[in-house]
Structures are given as structure tokens and as C-alpha cells.
Write a structure and sequence with these properties.
Fic-like fold
């Protein structure tokens, strides 16, 4: 059991998360985390602390492929076919194909988070320098920010992502949208609807664990599975105050591209299925997100 205690130091009061631990016949109090200066702690925030202390926020408890070998081969095949298709194009046509994908990816990733910018307006804004009318400034920032983040990935995807890379992605994604928490892991508690996320007290160690898991997983399970399964853990941690969905979907593609695979664009029209798959995966049914991403991936790259 954990609880919060107040300690007075040099006239100031500070809060600590502590646990009572039995050692033989004695019960000792062990400090788990320093919370900060004394303040009101909402019940939900304390529940998140217990949630993380008990490791209930860690869902990647094994290294298992959730999809079949045939499913992996289908995705690898369509990825290879698309790369072959791109090689057959001239330089200008390849660039236009890239712009077409990016407008789709950016439009849909932002739409999942509430943006109303259409695919056509996104394309014209980002690649034709035409500013569309009738949108909020934030929606335009979301579009241009995602392109900057993508450009960062393109320059760096050949190496394994680090904490600093995630900070940079977050800085790009939320530039001109937030300031105080830009490029930093959360220092306050956040939630996904009514679902708990990792306590801010544990976020740094969970992100360390996630990057370690990804490295190990690349040696033990299929590359597609690593990208899809790690997305569940990232969204469970919800490491930033805002922008987690967009950064998380960028990270999926960093991991895919790192292994020579084509990227994925999760479509807003499938938002309810996507959110449902994430929630089921967080509850332990990891296959849910893998099956969802499989359908999205093979549906994206179709060849006759």
C-alpha cells in the first residue's frame, strides 16, 4: 500500500509518496517518490500514482507476435511493392507522391485530435503556399508543425530514437500551441477521457523502459509488431501534457522507416475503431491494436 505523507523541512512542507514495507516483524516506511511542495492532491491523481507504483501502466509484459506470419508477409510485400513503384518514378513524381502521402498523414493525424483542415486544404497550405480561409490559427500551426516534425524524422530515422528525439518531435508538433511544457515530459497529471495514464512521478522511468523494450523487441518479434505494440505503451504513458497522439503516430513511422518499411497513415474515419483498439490493448488485448494497424496498412498500399 502507498500513501502520501507531509514532511516539514526548514519551515516548508513537502509531499512524498511512500510505501509501508514489512521487514520481518517491523513495518518500515519507504519513500517512493518526491511529489513537491504541499498542495491539494485530487483523488484521481493519487489513483494514477498507485496505478504506476503497482506497474498497472505497463502493458508490454512479453515479446510475442500477435499477428500471423502471413499477416507480416502481407505488410512486408505491400511495403516492398510500393518502394519498387517509387523507384520507377522520376524525381518530380516521387516528390509529388511523398507530398500526397504527407498531406494524408498530417490531415488525418491532426483530425483525430480535432482539426477540421481538409486533405485538399492541407496539401495546398503545405505544398502550394496557399493559406486556406475559415480555419483557426491553431489548425494551421498543427499542419505546418507536423510537416516540420516529419522532416526531422526523415533526417534521423536511420538511427534509433532517443528521449531527446522525442522532445524535439514534441517541440515541433506543439510549436506556437503551447510554450511552458514544450519539449518536456509532463510534470502534472493528465488523463485520456476517464482513463488513467502513467503518473508524472514515474514518466521518465517508464519512457526509459519503453525505449529499452523497443530495442529488445526488434531482436525478438516482427518489426511491424514492435511499432504497433509500442504505440500502446506510449499512449498509456502519455508522456507529454499535450500532443501525445500526434507524437505517438510519428514514432510509429520512425520505427517502421528505421527498419526499411513504408510509413502508415491512420485515418480519421477509423477514429472510433482506432481508439477502441487502443483501449482494448491497454486493458491487455494487445492484438487489438496490431489487427487494427494491419488492416490500415494493407488497405493503404493496394496493388493489382
Amino acid at each position: 500500500m502507498v500513501h502520501i505523507v507531509t514532511k516539514k523541512i526548514k519551515g516548508n512542507e513537502y509531499l512524498y509518496l511512500v510505501a509501508n514495507i514489512r521487514e520481518k516483524e517491523k513495518v518500515i516506511q519507504k519513500t517512493i517518490k518526491y511529489i513537491g511542495r504541499k498542495r491539494p492532491i485530487p483523488k484521481e491523481e493519487f489513483e494514477c500514482m498507485k496505478f504506476s507504483h503497482n506497474n498497472q501502466d505497463w502493458v508490454l509484459n512479453s515479446f510475442n507476435d500477435e499477428l500471423s506470419y502471413q499477416d507480416h508477409q502481407k505488410m512486408k510485400t505491400v511495403s516492398d511493392l510500393y518502394k519498387e513503384y517509387l523507384k520507377g518514378l522520376d524525381k518530380v513524381s516521387r516528390e509529388k507522391e511523398k507530398e500526397r502521402f504527407l498531406s494524408t498523414f498530417i490531415t488525418n493525424s491532426n483530425a483525430i485530435e480535432g482539426s477540421t483542415l481538409t486533405n485538399k486544404d492541407t496539401f495546398n497550405y503545405l505544398f502550394n503556399d496557399i493559406t486556406p480561409k475559415g480555419y483557426k490559427k491553431k489548425e494551421l500551426f498543427m499542419a505546418s508543425n507536423m510537416l516540420k516534425a516529419w522532416n526531422y524524422i526523415e533526417k534521423n530515422y536511420k538511427r534509433f530514437p532517443t528521449h531527446e528525439d522525442l522532445f524535439k518531435l514534441h517541440e515541433f508538433v506543439n510549436l506556437n500551441i503551447e510554450e511552458e511544457t514544450l519539449g518536456k515530459y509532463k510534470k502534472v497529471q493528465n488523463y485520456v477521457d476517464n482513463e488513467y495514464t502513467t503518473s508524472f512521478l514515474f514518466v521518465e522511468e517508464r519512457m526509459r523502459d519503453l525505449l529499452k523494450w523497443i530495442k529488445k523487441a526488434f531482436k525478438k518479434i516482427d518489426n511491424f509488431e514492435v511499432a504497433f505494440q509500442s504505440h500502446v505503451q506510449f499512449e498509456t504513458i502519455h508522456p507529454f501534457v499535450d500532443g501525445n497522439g500526434r507524437v505517438g503516430r510519428l514514432l510509429i513511422n520512425w520505427l517502421l522507416m528505421n527498419k526499411g518499411l513504408m510509413p502508415i497513415a491512420i485515418h480519421n474515419k477509423k477514429r472510433s475503431d482506432y481508439i477502441s483498439a487502443l483501449k482494448n490493448a491497454i486493458k491487455g488485448k494487445i492484438e487489438a491494436i496490431c489487427k487494427f494497424c494491419f488492416k490500415e496498412y494493407v488497405g493503404q498500399y493496394k496493388f493489382v
